[in-house]
Specification:
84 residues, mainly alpha, 73% helix
């Protein structure tokens, strides 16, 4: 039997600190809130504040959790690997 992979195994980069992750999350949330307000603001203007907040958070939270923060962390890890 042959091994599945002959590539050397590199140790995983250490996970960023909780402070770095918090900063990345804050930046992603800030960016998404601004973008959502710019893009959807005119459409949401007639709605009450609780409904506007519901719509904005319904867009922002999934985008940040599933798209932006993972992408930022992947980029951060790639940059850290490059500088070693």
């Amino acid at each position: 039997m042959s091994p599945l992979s002959t590539a050397p195994i590199r140790p995983a980069a250490p996970a960023p600190s909780v402070h770095v992750r918090a900063a990345f999350t804050w930046l992603a949330v800030y960016f998404m809130i601004m973008a959502t307000q710019i893009l959807l603001g005119p459409l949401l203007g007639a709605l009450s504040l609780p409904v506007r907040t519901l719509v904005v958070t319904g867009v922002v939270v999934p985008a940040v959790v599933y798209v932006l923060v993972p992408a930022i962390l992947r980029t951060y890890a790639a940059l850290r690997r490059r500088t070693r």
